[in-house]
Amino acid sequence: MSLTVWHDGGRPLCRREIALMRRLDRRGAISFVDASDGASVCPRDRRDLLARFHAVEDGHMLSGAAAFAAIWRAIPLLRPLGLVARNPHILNALEWLYEQFLSIRLPLQHLARKLERQAK
């Protein structure tokens, strides 16, 4: 399986999430690309990649909950969740949850940035 994930390294919440996924990806199965880095190669418009979570799994572009599910499938500990998410009803529910998260993401980013500054 080949998996590439684009994330927004300019946002503290995303950095923390990706750091966790990197720690869980002990086999190095996932290639993480910071879409906020102007030097990175992006398969889509950079703004689109920064607005929603994206991944390419075995040549197929995934977005939102489907991209998260692909990450879960690549990490042995989370693989069962990723396999369950292949069910269209489960994936639709996860996508709904992801959309809800996106609606509160900005305040969470502000909180994460504040906590990051306090930690320094």
Main β sheet profile: 4 strands, mixed
What gross morphology would you assign?
globular
| Beta-strand share of residues | 15-25%
Task: Write out the strand line-up for the largest beta sheet, numbering strands in chain order.
Answer: 2-1-3-4
The helix content is 55-70%
**What is the string of SSEs from the N terminus onward?**
EHEHEEHHH
Which structural class is indicated by helix and strand composition? Answer: alpha+beta
Intertermini distance:
38 Å
Number of domains: 1
The number of helices is 5
Q: Please state the CA-atom Rg, rounded to the nearest Å.
A: 14 Å
- What's the count of strands? 4
Q: What is the mean predicted local confidence, pLDDT?
A: 89
Question: What would you say this structure looks like, in words?
Answer:
This protein has 120 residues and is of the alpha+beta class. It has one domain. Helix content is 56%, strand content 15%. The protein contains five helices and four strands; from the N terminus they run βαβαββααα. Strand 3 and strand 4 form a beta hairpin. The chain starts with a strand and ends with a helix.
Topology:
Blueprint lengths: L2 E5 L4 H13 L5 E5 L11 H6 L2 E4 L2 E4 L1 H10 L4 H6 L3 H32 L1
Parallel strand pairs: 1-2
Antiparallel strand pairs: 1-3, 3-4
